[in-house]
Structures are given as C-alpha cells and as structure tokens.
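Holo model, glutamine. Inputs:
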Amino acid sequence: MIVGILALQGDFREHELVLQQLGVSTQQVRLPKHLEYVDRLIIPGGESTTIGKLLILYNLLEPIQERGHQGMPVWGTCAGAILMAKHIAEGRPAGQPSLALVDITAKRNAFGRQLDSFEADLDVPSLGAKSFHAVFIRAPLLEAPETDVQTIATLEEQHIVAAQQGSFLLTCFHPELSDDDRFHRYFLEL
Ligand code: GLN
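Output:
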C-alpha cells in the first residue's frame, strides 16, 4: 500500500513521518501523475484557500475528486477537512476552491481569536477507550452532517470535530502532531 500525501502547502512532512514510523510507503503528491501510484490520500493542515488555489494551478482538483468518487480513501486534517467538505462557512467571500467530497459544512476559524489554538482530550469511541490528545490550530468546526455522515468525535459533547462518510475521514485537529498514531492506523484500515 502506498499512501499519498498532498504536498502543496502545510504540514505534509509530519504526516509522512508518522506513516514512515508505521512502516508504510508514502508518496508526496504534487502533480496529477503522482496520484497514479497511490492507494489513498491525506490532505494536510495548512491554509485551505492557498491549498485550494494550488490544487487548481497544478491540475489536481478534478483528478483527486475523480479518484475519491471511484472509492479511494481520503483523509483531510484541518485545512484538508475544509477542502473536503461540500459546504464552507466563513470562507472567502468570493468562494474558495473545494474538493466537495463529504456532505457536511466546515466552518472555518470557528474558535475565534481567544481560542486560536488549544489542545483537548477527546473521546473517540472508534479508537478505543483511551482518549485522544488533539491539537487544534485555527481549527474549523463541522456542522450539519447529512444522514450517512458519521460523527467520530465531538468537543464538549456538542461540536463535531471528526466525521466520516464511507472512506472519507475529516478531522478538525492535527493527529500528525500528537504523539499517538491511532488516527493514522484507523485511516489505513478504511
Ligand atoms: N484556518 C485554516 C484554514 O482556514 C486551517 C488551519 C489549519 O489547517 N491548521 O484553512
């Protein structure tokens, strides 16, 4: 199995490191031809508007959508989750590019200035009993999931911060920055 990591902007190297520690082969995806080698794809955190523009510039938006629709598992973390949501709230007024793979709304920068960045222990039943220490950095929140979207984790039992629709996974936080590879292992099994 080769896991692709979109490497246009953001913290793709951190994802790569976790996967390499798990003994998984990785491929940085910068051009459409790189997609041919990968079985699944991670879209890292960074800046969703920038990554969106670069997806268009490098002709990657449609090929990724196409692979996703064909069943390739895709995991978006933070900015990556924004890019995978079908609806974006608080995006650029003129709209921003999106892969639009998951029937959910991502609200950008949902925690305001005071809580720009923080860490929290989350209950994630899919990962077992032990809580997951999550790092949030100018994170989005997920809202209005449609019926076949499963909530994977909530913050304070009300805000959705991780969700899944089939083989598409979204996390508003950065599991690649926690010293815990359970989300990576979960994605590898999708
Ligand atoms: N706030 C960023 C955005 O809107 C996401 C931040 C992140 O990926 N850590 O794209």
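The chain has a mean pLDDT of 96. The chain is about 25% helix and 30% strand.
Archived with the compound record.
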